[in-house]
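Handoff note, outgoing to incoming analyst
You'll be picking up this chain. Sequence as last confirmed:
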Amino acid sequence: MSEKARQIPTISEVVSVDENLKIKFPESVCKALEIIPDTKLLLMADPTVGEIIMNVAALPGAPLAEARMIIGNQPGSLTKIGGKLAGDQINIVMFLMPPSTKDTINGSMLLDVSKSNKTIREIEKSLSELDVIRRVTVKLL
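Most recent structure output, in case you need it:
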């Protein structure tokens, strides 16, 4: 059987937003993505095209942090950041960095800090010491 034939089909469902602005996920989606109560999802909304994208970010109880940063737009910037985080036993779950032709880029990272012995302030300080980072804030989610 070919790889294409073995792929799970995309699930497409129409959902409604209730009067409390809540959405109930279809059971088929929750089962397929192993979503249970308190699963953390990363939501990205693009108002210019009316699109919302959601990704499973972490299972319940996983300590996550968000790092928002302004970085220098130069070759190797992401390598330095990734190396620093890896050295601190921090996993990058997701990274959002829009394209830019400017000298700097605004980026946001979702970090799994479950294996790190660093505090949030220590992580922030460690990242701020990199020459490619102009500004960074880290917060526990």
